[in-house]
Amino acid sequence: MSEKTTFxxxxxxxTCNWCSYRAADAAGMGRMKYAPNVRLIRVMCSxxxxxxxxxxxxxxxxxxxxxTGCHPGDCHYIDQNYKTMRRYELLRRTLVQxxxxxxxxxxxxxxxxxxxxxxxxxxxxxETVRALGPLNWPKxxxxxxxxxxxxxx
Amino acid sequence: MSEKIGVYxxxxxxxxxxxxxxEEVARWAKETFPEVxxxxxxxxxxxxxxxxxxxxxxxEHGLTRVVVxxxxxxxxxxxxxxxxxxxxxNPFLFEMASIREQVSWVSTDRKIATQKSKALVxxxxxxxxxxxxxxxxxxxxxxxxxIVGGGVTGIQAALEIADSGYHVYLVEREPSIGGHxxxxxxxxxxxxxxxxxxxxxxxxxxxxPNITLLSYSEVEKVDGYVGNFTVRIRKRARxxxxxxxxxxxxxxxxxxxxxxxxxxxxxxxxxKAVYVPxxxxxxxxxxxDTENCLYFQKGAxxxxxxxxxxxxxxxAQEDEILTVQVGNIILATGxxxxxxxxxxxxxxxxxxxxxxxxxxxxxxNASGPTGGKVLLKDGRxxxxxxxxxxxxxxxxxxxxxxxxxxxxxxxxFAHLAxxxxxxxxxxxxxxxxxxxxxxxxxxxxxxxxxxFFVRGKVGEVTDFARTPEEEGKLIxxxxxTLAGIQRRIPVDMVxxxxxxxxxxxxxxxxxxxxxxxxxxxxxxxxxxxxxxxxTMTEGVYIAGCAQGPKDIPACVSQGAAAAARVVGRIQQKSxxxxxxxxxxxxxxxSGCRICNDLCPFNAITFDEEKNVSVINPALCQGCGxxxxxxxxxxxxxxxxxxxxxxxxxxxxLDLAFEPSE
Lengths: 153, 661
What we know:
heterodimer; A: 153 residues; Rossmann fold; 4-stranded parallel beta sheet; 15% strand; B: 661 residues; alpha/beta; FAD/NAD(P)-binding domain; Alpha-Beta Plaits; 5 domains; 5-stranded parallel beta sheet; 17 helices
């Protein structure tokens, strides 16, 4: 890498056990190279993804969060990913209210066979977040916010 | 923190160590986390010595938690859980980080890959601290089995299971079992007659006391999980009383209505409105095709009713809905033939005497429309025949995969065409692929028989003559890649060796049974090499061409393999499932009922007396949607608790991304 100043975002990706985690496995097995900025967490179903988890990830320093799951209609638990879809829309609105760019959160459907789709989406998302710049939530929390709270107390 | 964690970083030969500095990750884990009592790297953690390393450390150092960073947990989580268990540690106090599939295999920079591995390992270390000892849930296995698809694969699987003493429901959409194999004439490379080897199996499947044959039927709904599926099957009305019918087929003989048979005879011959698809059909009972029957369409005729000696015709018969309980399911739904009309330059459907492979099968079949004579549309015997390989296969415009059977099928056609007509036979191929026992020998035999082999993809089949010799012929335009020239070869008949495609409704079938299809549309196996007949869904197996193109021996092997897996399962009587379940902490439940409507398995009910929601652990499948939804945080999900996931998020994000120099 020639430019040391290039911003490298950190992305947390939530994956479901049945489709998107296996898509990550498939990407690996196919030796599909993708941006190393993403760190994945496995849950059983995208329906398990509590909005708190997303906010927690931002608070801990993630610049972007990916929610991934089975395609609509393919959910291992019948239709729980539809609930994910609803939560995702609400969460995006919440992010706006909190002053965040909603583009920092992305929903991706990837079946167990779609390693390439997952890899492409990760690459694309990393570039999107890179363009948005660092979020630096922990910094605000740790320095400014904490100071403000201390002053107030 | 009083936990003692053992961390193990696998080299996986050079698979991981080639891209990740595994020693550094191990060293860093020990130095950074006070809870990490031992941190090692080892060449192959999954090997016996690798597992013993973990076992000995648990015993000697009293480890209370174990983290292994290696391949995907879908591959070796059970292996390492086993190691923990053998050493007396509850297997759920273990966590795995996938640094092969998610790091080494997808990264290009060693420093960044090492850093990402550390982040994933830290996530696992932070998470495992909150793991709880759990016991797997035992579920009883219902001994009955459902097999969908009555082709040779499904028949083989059904017979194997039935012979083992277990009951099988064999469901077939068409009026008879037999599948594509029943349509074939000869089978490669032995050239034994397809019907001669298949019909005894069909008969056995139709009469076996342990097989309930449900032909002309389709599965409509599947509920439940491994060990206990509830399956709803629609048995379509044959309009024939099977109790009374003797299969004499007087009705078929007398029926005045003739229709082109698009299914079994692929449009090459006609059948009656009351019919059995072919003489050896199993079951032997005919079907009244209500869309073409004169009585159903025009209200008059009923000739079949008059001639039936046993009064078996039942015009009032209605579809029957059966609900059956089964413990395991095998899907052997087969394939569809590539639609050759999609390649207009080959002229199928436009030019007479351009036929598909299946049409040629019927043409050479002794029970087919011409009694086994290979004839042109006008009744002449062809003097020259062109066989085009790879039609719809190995072609990025249609399907990029190899259909696996077409080379051998085309060689077989060359032999049969030559034998029956004495015609000059040209095989137009891209590559000849004969990778099975006695296949290459068959190829040599066909070469020696004098078949002409032209290497090149055919550009066009046309009847537009440029020279007098081409007049009245089909001209095959091909670039001969061996000679490096364009050729125009006039022939009388062109056979398109069409590729195999997933069933048109493969995706719906996948959805019905909770399994997925590959990008090509074939049903996906659990592991392409090590678990080819199981699927991601416990209790659902796939076999034969539903999984991908394959020849008859491979289909039979897979049918038998799936049967063996199922019988093994049944004999275990019960299966252990992951104890990932949700439960309500009553003291915290406010009774808001938000969770009540979220569960697709109806596992959540409301206790009116206590004013709290209750989760039935037998119905809960552990998706965790209710856990995420509870506004009071009153629902706890085992092995995926808020605490565990939050800790993992913290761990993953502890290290910032430092770009390489």
